């Protein structure tokens, strides 16, 4: 299979089930932003040491990156068509459980945290902001067409999880968090 098809050379792309739309269509922007977030998560993971202590987190992110691909597939599926792997409330609950596990050992938040610290932490913060943008785009699509409500919830919870992971990385790496001072 060739990597290039030349079908997008005129500014259109195909949604799932072959529906052609402009490359700037809201659905394309939404699932493209999910793809961008997934890539940023991969970048953040690549900045973590390849040691045993990060094995469990990598396993959780393997599942999350797969689910994020499924979120993109849902957003790339035209209204009224079936999607193979729908996001569910159980997927959202999984993220909530992971948030609770990681945040249990973190210092209480008393001020806004500035993104940064360890390079992996900073990269998880970037991923968080890209997921927030994907969420905004998915909400926009949902104002025009039907979108699985669990997709928006999943993106919302994923950005929360990425925030907690960024804090976790700084804590584990012994890197102080920087707080907003007014």
Explain what the structure shows.
Keywords: ATP-binding, Cobalamin biosynthesis, Cytoplasm, Nucleotide-binding, Transferase. One of its GO terms (molecular function) is corrinoid adenosyltransferase activity. Pfam families: Cob_adeno_trans. The chain is mostly helical and 182 residues long. The chain has a single domain (12-179), classed as Up-down Bundle (Hypothetical Protein Ta1238, Chain: A). It has 5 helices and 4 strands. The termini are far apart. The mean pLDDT is 91.
Q: What is this structure's SSE topology?
A:
Elements: E1 12-14, E2 20-22, H1 26-46, H2 55-75, H3 89-103, E3 113-114, H4 119-142, H5 149-173, E4 178-179
Antiparallel strand pairs: 1-2, 3-4
Protein name: Corrinoid adenosyltransferase
InterPro entries: CblAdoTrfase-like, CblAdoTrfase-like_sf, PduO-typ
Keywords: ATP-binding, Cobalamin biosynthesis, Cytoplasm, Nucleotide-binding, Transferase
């Amino acid at each position: 299979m060739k990597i290039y098809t030349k079908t997008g050379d005129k500014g259109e792309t195909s949604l799932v089930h072959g529906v052609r739309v402009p490359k700037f269509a809201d659905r394309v922007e939404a699932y493209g932003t999910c793809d961008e977030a997934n890539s940023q998560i991969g970048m953040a993971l690549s900045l973590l040491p390849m040691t045993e202590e990060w094995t469990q987190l990598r396993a959780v992110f393997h599942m999350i990156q797969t689910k994020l691909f499924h979120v993109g597939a849902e957003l790339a599926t035209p209204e009224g068509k079936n999607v193979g792997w729908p996001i569910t409330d159980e997927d959202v609950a999984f993220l909530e459980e992971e948030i609770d596990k990681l945040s249990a050992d973190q210092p209480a938040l008393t001020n806004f945290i500035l993104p940064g610290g360890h390079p992996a932490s900073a990269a998880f913060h970037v991923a968080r902001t890209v997921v927030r943008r994907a969420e905004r785009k998915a909400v926009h699509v949902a104002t025009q067409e039907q979108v699985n409500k669990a997709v928006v919830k999943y993106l919302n919870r994923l950005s929360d999880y990425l925030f907690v992971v960024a804090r976790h990385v700084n804590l584990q790496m012994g890197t102080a968090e920087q707080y907003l001072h007014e």
